[in-house]
Amino acid sequence: MQSNVRVEEVCVSIREKLNGPSPSQSKCCIFRVHGELRNVNKTAYEPKIIAIGPYHRSTITLQATNKYKLHYFQLLLEQKKEITVEKYVDAMRLLEEDTRKCYGEPIGVNENELVEMMNENELVEMMVLDGCFIIELIRKFVDSSLRDEHDPIFPMDWIVNSLQRDLMLFENQLPFFVLRKLFYMIDAKPDDSRFINLALDFFRDLLPVHRKSIEGSSPKNAKHLLGLIHSYWLPSFAGNVTSEKFAANNKNCQSIHCATELREAGIQFVKNEECSLFDIKFENGVIHMLPLIIEDRTETLFRNLIAYEQYGKDEDFKYYVTNYVEFLDNLIDSSNDVGILCRRKIIENWLGDDEVVSNIFNKITDAVTRTNNDFHYAEIFAKVNIHCNKRRNRWIAKLRRNYLNSPWGIISIAAGFILLLLTFTQTFFTVVPKWALD
Protein backbone atom coordinates (compact mmCIF):
# COMPACT_ATOMS: atom_id res chain seq x y z
CA MET A 1 0.00 0.00 0.00
CA GLN A 2 2.79 2.37 0.93
CA SER A 3 4.54 1.54 -2.32
CA ASN A 4 1.42 2.46 -4.31
CA VAL A 5 1.22 5.82 -2.51
CA ARG A 6 4.82 6.61 -3.46
CA VAL A 7 4.17 5.67 -7.07
CA GLU A 8 1.14 7.93 -7.18
CA GLU A 9 3.13 10.81 -5.66
CA VAL A 10 5.77 10.47 -8.39
CA CYS A 11 3.08 10.34 -11.08
CA VAL A 12 1.44 13.50 -9.72
CA SER A 13 4.80 15.27 -9.72
CA ILE A 14 5.49 14.28 -13.33
CA ARG A 15 2.00 15.36 -14.47
CA GLU A 16 2.48 18.76 -12.84
CA LYS A 17 5.73 19.26 -14.70
CA LEU A 18 4.15 18.14 -17.98
CA ASN A 19 1.42 20.73 -17.54
CA GLY A 20 4.02 23.49 -17.28
CA PRO A 21 5.18 25.51 -20.30
CA SER A 22 7.13 23.59 -22.92
CA PRO A 23 10.45 24.96 -24.20
CA SER A 24 8.81 26.00 -27.47
CA GLN A 25 6.14 27.94 -25.60
CA SER A 26 8.55 29.62 -23.21
CA LYS A 27 8.81 33.41 -23.29
CA CYS A 28 12.36 33.34 -21.93
CA CYS A 29 14.56 35.96 -23.56
CA ILE A 30 16.99 36.96 -20.79
CA PHE A 31 19.48 34.31 -19.70
CA ARG A 32 22.61 33.82 -17.67
CA VAL A 33 25.45 33.13 -20.09
CA HIS A 34 26.46 29.47 -19.85
CA GLY A 35 29.68 28.50 -18.13
CA GLU A 36 31.80 27.58 -21.16
CA LEU A 37 31.13 30.91 -22.84
CA ARG A 38 31.44 32.91 -19.62
CA ASN A 39 34.76 31.38 -18.58
CA VAL A 40 36.55 32.74 -21.66
CA ASN A 41 36.05 36.27 -20.32
CA LYS A 42 33.83 36.54 -17.23
CA THR A 43 34.02 40.32 -16.88
CA ALA A 44 32.50 40.85 -20.34
CA TYR A 45 29.09 39.72 -19.05
CA GLU A 46 29.09 41.38 -15.64
CA PRO A 47 27.98 44.97 -14.87
CA LYS A 48 30.57 47.35 -13.47
CA ILE A 49 28.45 49.96 -11.71
CA ILE A 50 24.72 49.16 -11.90
CA ALA A 51 22.47 46.10 -11.70
CA ILE A 52 19.33 45.99 -13.83
CA GLY A 53 16.94 43.09 -13.40
CA PRO A 54 17.27 40.22 -10.94
CA TYR A 55 20.50 38.42 -11.86
CA HIS A 56 23.03 40.85 -10.35
CA ARG A 57 20.91 42.65 -7.78
CA SER A 58 22.67 40.89 -4.86
CA THR A 59 26.17 41.90 -5.98
CA ILE A 60 27.58 44.05 -3.15
CA THR A 61 29.76 46.23 -5.37
CA LEU A 62 26.70 47.37 -7.34
CA GLN A 63 24.62 48.47 -4.36
CA ALA A 64 26.01 52.01 -4.31
CA THR A 65 24.26 53.00 -7.53
CA ASN A 66 20.82 52.15 -6.14
CA LYS A 67 20.80 55.73 -4.86
CA TYR A 68 20.81 56.91 -8.50
CA LYS A 69 17.61 54.94 -9.13
CA LEU A 70 15.92 56.46 -6.08
CA HIS A 71 17.12 59.97 -6.96
CA TYR A 72 15.74 59.78 -10.49
CA PHE A 73 12.45 58.30 -9.27
CA GLN A 74 12.06 61.05 -6.66
CA LEU A 75 12.61 63.74 -9.32
CA LEU A 76 10.12 61.98 -11.58
CA LEU A 77 7.45 62.06 -8.88
CA GLU A 78 8.07 65.77 -8.32
CA GLN A 79 7.93 66.60 -12.03
CA LYS A 80 4.84 64.50 -12.83
CA LYS A 81 2.71 64.90 -9.74
CA GLU A 82 -0.34 63.41 -11.47
CA ILE A 83 1.34 59.99 -11.55
CA THR A 84 1.73 58.66 -8.04
CA VAL A 85 3.83 55.79 -6.75
CA GLU A 86 0.65 53.71 -6.61
CA LYS A 87 0.05 54.17 -10.34
CA TYR A 88 3.54 52.97 -11.24
CA VAL A 89 3.18 49.99 -8.93
CA ASP A 90 -0.27 49.06 -10.26
CA ALA A 91 0.98 49.26 -13.87
CA MET A 92 3.96 47.00 -13.15
CA ARG A 93 1.92 44.56 -11.09
CA LEU A 94 -0.15 43.82 -14.20
CA LEU A 95 3.07 42.88 -16.02
CA GLU A 96 4.72 40.98 -13.16
CA GLU A 97 3.76 37.47 -14.28
CA ASP A 98 4.87 38.00 -17.88
CA THR A 99 8.09 39.62 -16.66
CA ARG A 100 8.94 36.63 -14.48
CA LYS A 101 8.55 34.32 -17.48
CA CYS A 102 11.14 36.28 -19.47
CA TYR A 103 14.03 35.12 -17.30
CA GLY A 104 15.62 31.82 -18.14
CA GLU A 105 16.60 31.01 -14.56
CA PRO A 106 14.60 31.25 -11.34
CA ILE A 107 14.70 34.88 -10.26
CA GLY A 108 16.94 35.19 -7.25
CA VAL A 109 19.78 32.88 -8.29
CA ASN A 110 23.02 34.30 -6.94
CA GLU A 111 26.37 33.49 -8.52
CA ASN A 112 27.58 31.70 -5.40
CA GLU A 113 24.41 30.31 -3.84
CA LEU A 114 20.69 29.90 -4.22
CA VAL A 115 18.87 32.64 -2.39
CA GLU A 116 15.19 33.09 -1.66
CA MET A 117 13.05 33.67 -4.72
CA MET A 118 11.87 37.22 -5.30
CA ASN A 119 8.25 37.49 -4.32
CA GLU A 120 5.71 39.51 -6.28
CA ASN A 121 6.25 42.72 -4.32
CA GLU A 122 10.04 42.57 -4.65
CA LEU A 123 9.84 41.97 -8.38
CA VAL A 124 7.35 44.81 -8.93
CA GLU A 125 9.54 47.21 -6.91
CA MET A 126 12.52 46.23 -9.02
CA MET A 127 10.55 46.77 -12.24
CA VAL A 128 9.44 50.26 -11.12
CA LEU A 129 12.82 51.54 -9.92
CA ASP A 130 15.01 49.92 -12.60
CA GLY A 131 12.59 50.71 -15.43
CA CYS A 132 12.01 54.35 -14.47
CA PHE A 133 15.75 54.86 -14.05
CA ILE A 134 16.40 53.58 -17.59
CA ILE A 135 13.66 55.72 -19.12
CA GLU A 136 14.80 58.87 -17.33
CA LEU A 137 18.48 58.20 -18.11
CA ILE A 138 17.72 57.85 -21.82
CA ARG A 139 15.51 60.95 -21.89
CA LYS A 140 18.07 63.06 -20.00
CA PHE A 141 20.89 61.82 -22.23
CA VAL A 142 19.14 63.09 -25.36
CA ASP A 143 17.55 66.22 -23.84
CA SER A 144 19.86 68.01 -21.41
CA SER A 145 17.05 70.39 -20.37
CA LEU A 146 15.51 67.52 -18.41
CA ARG A 147 18.55 67.20 -16.16
CA ASP A 148 18.53 68.49 -12.61
CA GLU A 149 21.29 70.94 -11.64
CA HIS A 150 22.48 68.41 -9.08
CA ASP A 151 22.39 65.47 -11.49
CA PRO A 152 24.76 62.78 -10.14
CA ILE A 153 25.49 61.12 -13.49
CA PHE A 154 26.00 63.41 -16.49
CA PRO A 155 28.73 65.68 -15.08
CA MET A 156 31.07 62.65 -15.21
CA ASP A 157 31.58 61.09 -18.66
CA TRP A 158 33.03 57.88 -17.25
CA ILE A 159 29.74 57.11 -15.49
CA VAL A 160 27.76 57.62 -18.71
CA ASN A 161 30.19 55.38 -20.62
CA SER A 162 29.91 52.68 -17.96
CA LEU A 163 26.11 52.90 -17.95
CA GLN A 164 25.98 52.52 -21.73
CA ARG A 165 28.05 49.38 -21.35
CA ASP A 166 26.10 47.95 -18.40
CA LEU A 167 22.65 48.59 -19.89
CA MET A 168 23.37 46.49 -22.96
CA LEU A 169 24.68 43.42 -21.10
CA PHE A 170 22.66 40.28 -21.85
CA GLU A 171 22.19 39.40 -18.18
CA ASN A 172 21.39 42.98 -17.16
CA GLN A 173 18.06 43.49 -18.92
CA LEU A 174 14.40 44.27 -18.32
CA PRO A 175 11.80 43.07 -20.82
CA PHE A 176 11.12 45.67 -23.50
CA PHE A 177 7.38 45.70 -22.79
CA VAL A 178 8.12 46.93 -19.25
CA LEU A 179 10.20 49.84 -20.57
CA ARG A 180 7.60 50.64 -23.21
CA LYS A 181 4.81 50.82 -20.62
CA LEU A 182 6.81 53.12 -18.34
CA PHE A 183 7.82 55.34 -21.26
CA TYR A 184 4.18 55.80 -22.22
CA MET A 185 3.44 56.84 -18.64
CA ILE A 186 6.37 59.25 -18.35
CA ASP A 187 7.01 60.89 -21.71
CA ALA A 188 4.95 63.83 -22.94
CA LYS A 189 4.81 62.54 -26.54
CA PRO A 190 4.87 58.76 -26.20
CA ASP A 191 5.00 56.43 -29.18
CA ASP A 192 7.11 53.42 -30.11
CA SER A 193 9.18 55.20 -32.76
CA ARG A 194 10.17 57.98 -30.39
CA PHE A 195 11.14 55.55 -27.65
CA ILE A 196 13.18 53.40 -30.02
CA ASN A 197 14.98 56.44 -31.45
CA LEU A 198 15.80 57.76 -27.98
CA ALA A 199 17.13 54.38 -26.86
CA LEU A 200 19.24 53.91 -29.98
CA ASP A 201 20.64 57.41 -29.66
CA PHE A 202 21.73 56.56 -26.13
CA PHE A 203 23.76 53.59 -27.43
CA ARG A 204 25.21 55.14 -30.59
CA ASP A 205 28.54 55.99 -28.95
CA LEU A 206 28.86 52.36 -27.93
CA LEU A 207 28.69 51.00 -31.48
CA PRO A 208 32.23 50.57 -32.91
CA VAL A 209 31.62 52.58 -36.08
CA HIS A 210 31.52 56.26 -36.90
CA ARG A 211 28.16 57.88 -36.31
CA LYS A 212 27.71 58.71 -40.01
CA SER A 213 28.04 55.00 -40.82
CA ILE A 214 25.14 53.93 -38.60
CA GLU A 215 22.16 53.21 -40.80
CA GLY A 216 20.00 50.48 -39.41
CA SER A 217 16.59 49.04 -40.04
CA SER A 218 13.42 49.71 -38.07
CA PRO A 219 13.53 47.21 -35.19
CA LYS A 220 10.47 45.06 -34.66
CA ASN A 221 9.46 43.04 -31.62
CA ALA A 222 12.61 43.84 -29.62
CA LYS A 223 12.74 41.78 -26.43
CA HIS A 224 15.05 44.11 -24.49
CA LEU A 225 17.65 46.83 -25.08
CA LEU A 226 20.36 44.44 -26.27
CA GLY A 227 17.85 42.88 -28.65
CA LEU A 228 16.98 46.37 -29.86
CA ILE A 229 20.62 47.05 -30.74
CA HIS A 230 20.87 43.71 -32.53
CA SER A 231 17.63 44.22 -34.48
CA TYR A 232 18.65 47.72 -35.54
CA TRP A 233 22.21 46.85 -36.49
CA LEU A 234 21.46 44.21 -39.14
CA PRO A 235 23.32 43.83 -42.45
CA SER A 236 21.62 44.61 -45.74
CA PHE A 237 21.47 40.90 -46.60
CA ALA A 238 19.45 40.04 -43.47
CA GLY A 239 16.71 37.58 -44.32
CA ASN A 240 17.66 37.39 -48.00
CA VAL A 241 19.87 34.29 -47.92
CA THR A 242 18.28 30.87 -47.70
CA SER A 243 19.65 27.93 -45.77
CA GLU A 244 20.03 26.05 -49.06
CA LYS A 245 22.39 28.72 -50.36
CA PHE A 246 24.32 28.59 -47.10
CA ALA A 247 24.70 24.83 -47.42
CA ALA A 248 25.90 25.15 -51.02
CA ASN A 249 28.47 27.82 -50.20
CA ASN A 250 29.75 26.40 -46.93
CA LYS A 251 31.49 23.35 -48.36
CA ASN A 252 35.24 23.77 -47.86
CA CYS A 253 34.78 27.50 -47.20
CA GLN A 254 35.20 27.69 -43.46
CA SER A 255 38.50 29.60 -43.35
CA ILE A 256 40.80 31.94 -45.22
CA HIS A 257 44.39 33.05 -44.71
CA CYS A 258 45.31 35.88 -42.37
CA ALA A 259 45.70 39.46 -43.58
CA THR A 260 49.47 39.15 -43.95
CA GLU A 261 49.22 36.11 -46.22
CA LEU A 262 46.31 37.55 -48.19
CA ARG A 263 48.30 40.70 -48.86
CA GLU A 264 51.21 38.59 -50.06
CA ALA A 265 48.78 36.82 -52.41
CA GLY A 266 47.90 40.16 -53.96
CA ILE A 267 44.66 40.81 -52.10
CA GLN A 268 44.13 44.40 -51.00
CA PHE A 269 42.05 45.86 -48.18
CA VAL A 270 40.06 49.01 -48.87
CA LYS A 271 37.79 50.81 -46.44
CA ASN A 272 34.22 51.35 -47.59
CA GLU A 273 32.19 53.89 -45.63
CA GLU A 274 29.06 53.43 -47.74
CA CYS A 275 27.95 50.14 -46.18
CA SER A 276 27.11 48.63 -42.81
CA LEU A 277 29.74 46.94 -40.67
CA PHE A 278 28.62 43.46 -41.73
CA ASP A 279 28.37 44.13 -45.48
CA ILE A 280 31.82 42.88 -46.52
CA LYS A 281 32.55 42.60 -50.25
CA PHE A 282 35.29 40.95 -52.31
CA GLU A 283 35.72 42.16 -55.89
CA ASN A 284 38.70 41.96 -58.27
CA GLY A 285 41.16 41.01 -55.57
CA VAL A 286 39.97 43.69 -53.15
CA ILE A 287 38.19 43.18 -49.81
CA HIS A 288 35.95 46.16 -49.00
CA MET A 289 35.11 46.70 -45.31
CA LEU A 290 33.68 49.41 -43.13
CA PRO A 291 36.22 50.78 -40.62
CA LEU A 292 35.91 49.17 -37.18
CA ILE A 293 36.70 51.16 -34.03
CA ILE A 294 38.28 49.12 -31.23
CA GLU A 295 37.95 50.67 -27.77
CA ASP A 296 37.58 49.47 -24.19
CA ARG A 297 33.92 48.44 -24.56
CA THR A 298 34.08 46.85 -28.01
CA GLU A 299 34.89 43.31 -26.89
CA THR A 300 32.09 43.41 -24.29
CA LEU A 301 29.58 44.59 -26.90
CA PHE A 302 30.52 41.85 -29.37
CA ARG A 303 30.53 39.13 -26.71
CA ASN A 304 27.05 40.03 -25.46
CA LEU A 305 25.60 40.26 -28.97
CA ILE A 306 27.13 36.86 -29.70
CA ALA A 307 25.62 35.47 -26.48
CA TYR A 308 22.23 36.87 -27.53
CA GLU A 309 22.57 35.06 -30.87
CA GLN A 310 23.52 31.85 -29.06
CA TYR A 311 20.26 31.93 -27.10
CA GLY A 312 18.10 33.42 -29.85
CA LYS A 313 15.08 31.49 -31.08
CA ASP A 314 13.85 33.80 -33.81
CA GLU A 315 14.22 32.88 -37.44
CA ASP A 316 14.66 36.50 -38.52
CA PHE A 317 18.32 36.61 -37.52
CA LYS A 318 21.12 34.09 -37.85
CA TYR A 319 24.50 34.76 -36.25
CA TYR A 320 25.31 38.03 -38.05
CA VAL A 321 27.61 39.30 -35.32
CA THR A 322 29.09 35.85 -34.71
CA ASN A 323 29.93 35.50 -38.40
CA TYR A 324 31.49 38.95 -38.53
CA VAL A 325 33.88 38.31 -35.63
CA GLU A 326 34.69 34.89 -37.16
CA PHE A 327 35.67 36.74 -40.34
CA LEU A 328 37.97 39.01 -38.32
CA ASP A 329 39.33 36.04 -36.40
CA ASN A 330 40.41 34.57 -39.74
CA LEU A 331 42.05 37.81 -40.83
CA ILE A 332 43.85 38.36 -37.53
CA ASP A 333 46.43 35.84 -36.31
CA SER A 334 49.00 38.24 -34.89
CA SER A 335 49.78 41.89 -34.23
CA ASN A 336 51.24 42.09 -37.75
CA ASP A 337 47.78 41.42 -39.20
CA VAL A 338 46.28 44.12 -36.97
CA GLY A 339 49.00 46.51 -38.15
CA ILE A 340 48.11 45.84 -41.79
CA LEU A 341 44.40 46.44 -41.19
CA CYS A 342 45.20 49.61 -39.24
CA ARG A 343 47.37 50.98 -42.04
CA ARG A 344 44.59 50.24 -44.52
CA LYS A 345 42.10 52.11 -42.23
CA ILE A 346 40.02 48.95 -41.74
CA ILE A 347 40.67 49.04 -37.98
CA GLU A 348 40.97 52.14 -35.80
CA ASN A 349 42.85 50.93 -32.74
CA TRP A 350 41.94 53.21 -29.85
CA LEU A 351 43.56 50.75 -27.44
CA GLY A 352 46.96 51.53 -28.92
CA ASP A 353 48.46 48.04 -28.66
CA ASP A 354 48.06 45.82 -31.74
CA GLU A 355 48.83 42.73 -29.66
CA VAL A 356 45.83 43.43 -27.41
CA VAL A 357 43.50 43.64 -30.42
CA SER A 358 44.97 40.42 -31.80
CA ASN A 359 44.32 38.61 -28.51
CA ILE A 360 40.71 39.84 -28.44
CA PHE A 361 39.80 38.36 -31.81
CA ASN A 362 41.82 35.18 -31.34
CA LYS A 363 39.70 34.30 -28.29
CA ILE A 364 36.36 35.93 -29.01
CA THR A 365 34.85 32.90 -30.76
CA ASP A 366 36.06 30.35 -28.18
CA ALA A 367 33.14 28.25 -26.88
CA VAL A 368 30.82 29.79 -29.52
CA THR A 369 28.74 27.29 -31.47
CA ARG A 370 26.86 27.51 -34.74
CA THR A 371 25.90 25.12 -37.52
CA ASN A 372 27.99 24.83 -40.66
CA ASN A 373 25.09 25.91 -42.86
CA ASP A 374 24.69 29.47 -41.66
CA PHE A 375 27.99 31.24 -42.32
CA HIS A 376 27.12 34.41 -44.20
CA TYR A 377 30.60 34.98 -45.64
CA ALA A 378 31.06 31.51 -47.13
CA GLU A 379 30.79 32.85 -50.70
CA ILE A 380 33.43 35.50 -49.99
CA PHE A 381 35.70 32.88 -48.42
CA ALA A 382 35.30 30.70 -51.51
CA LYS A 383 36.22 33.56 -53.86
CA VAL A 384 39.20 34.56 -51.73
CA ASN A 385 40.51 30.98 -51.65
CA ILE A 386 40.07 30.63 -55.42
CA HIS A 387 42.07 33.83 -55.89
CA CYS A 388 44.85 32.60 -53.61
CA ASN A 389 45.01 29.17 -55.27
CA LYS A 390 45.52 30.49 -58.81
CA ARG A 391 49.05 29.66 -60.00
CA ARG A 392 49.64 33.15 -61.37
CA ASN A 393 48.66 34.75 -58.08
CA ARG A 394 50.90 32.32 -56.17
CA TRP A 395 53.85 33.26 -58.41
CA ILE A 396 53.19 36.94 -57.91
CA ALA A 397 52.88 36.38 -54.17
CA LYS A 398 56.19 34.49 -54.08
CA LEU A 399 57.87 37.25 -56.11
CA ARG A 400 56.61 39.91 -53.74
CA ARG A 401 57.53 37.91 -50.66
CA ASN A 402 61.05 36.96 -51.78
CA TYR A 403 62.17 39.90 -53.90
CA LEU A 404 59.84 42.86 -53.54
CA ASN A 405 59.59 43.05 -49.78
CA SER A 406 62.28 45.76 -49.43
CA PRO A 407 63.65 48.72 -51.44
CA TRP A 408 66.96 46.89 -51.98
CA GLY A 409 65.12 43.92 -53.45
CA ILE A 410 63.31 46.16 -55.92
CA ILE A 411 66.60 47.90 -56.84
CA SER A 412 68.29 44.53 -57.39
CA ILE A 413 65.52 43.35 -59.72
CA ALA A 414 65.61 46.62 -61.63
CA ALA A 415 69.38 46.43 -61.96
CA GLY A 416 69.19 42.83 -63.12
CA PHE A 417 66.55 43.72 -65.71
CA ILE A 418 68.68 46.59 -67.06
CA LEU A 419 71.76 44.34 -67.20
CA LEU A 420 69.77 41.69 -69.04
CA LEU A 421 68.52 44.29 -71.53
CA LEU A 422 72.05 45.60 -72.18
CA THR A 423 73.38 42.07 -72.62
CA PHE A 424 70.62 41.27 -75.11
CA THR A 425 71.37 44.48 -77.05
CA GLN A 426 75.09 43.73 -77.18
CA THR A 427 74.46 40.18 -78.33
CA PHE A 428 72.04 41.39 -80.99
CA PHE A 429 74.53 43.79 -82.55
CA THR A 430 77.28 41.18 -82.34
CA VAL A 431 75.32 38.46 -84.13
CA VAL A 432 73.58 40.56 -86.79
CA PRO A 433 75.97 41.82 -89.53
CA LYS A 434 76.26 45.55 -89.94
CA TRP A 435 75.24 45.42 -93.62
CA ALA A 436 71.98 43.69 -92.63
CA LEU A 437 71.03 46.75 -90.60
CA ASP A 438 71.77 49.22 -93.44
Automatic annotation (TrEMBL):
Membrane as a keyword of this entry, yes or no, is yes
Q: From which domain of life does this come?
A: Eukaryota
Q: List where the protein spans the membrane.
A: 408-429
Which key words tag this protein in UniProt? Membrane, Transmembrane, Transmembrane helix
Tell me the InterPro entries matching this sequence: DUF247_pln
Q: Does the keyword Transmembrane apply?
A: yes
Q: What is this protein called?
A: Uncharacterized protein
